[in-house]
Design brief:
Blueprint: H1 3-16, H2 22-36, H3 43-51, H4 58-64, H5 69-84, H6 93-102, H7 108-124, H8 132-145, H9 150-175
Length: about 180
Amino acid sequence: MTAQLLTSQLNNLIQESKRKNAELRNAAENAVGELKGLPNTSESQLAGDLSRRPKFVKPFVLACKSSSGKTVGSGIICLQRLAVSQGLSRDTLKDVLEALDEATSQNADVQLKILQTLTAVVQNYGVEIRGDLIVKALWICSNLQASKTAVVSSTAAATLQQLVVAMFDKVAAEDG
């Protein structure tokens, strides 16, 4: 994940939302401003800087709640990259999971990206994913498992199994 990639995706969101979604456009413009204000450093430093900026994720969350498939796809891709690099603020995990849940009605490609993003969030933020957040993650998987698209259904089943195993491993580690 590079600042250049994020800036490009944010500029795409600005263009796509010009007249249709002022809130998304403003959030994306603010996020571009935040990126420009960060020093040009390594990817891990960028992720660390972004993880301390909870407002940075707002345009991607708003994009996932959009009715435009292209906008939703862009938002999920960025959330996935932020989750993989641990660039998400821990304060935004609830918003991220809610946005992923809202996007489950999109096409199969988006649904698969949701499952990939969900896996990255649970793996990289496992300590913070508990209570209502783990319930939301399990709900998303079980909802997508009911998909009529075989690849989505089977991927959701595998993801659900991974989440349940991770949850029990976490409980065992806490008790151990």
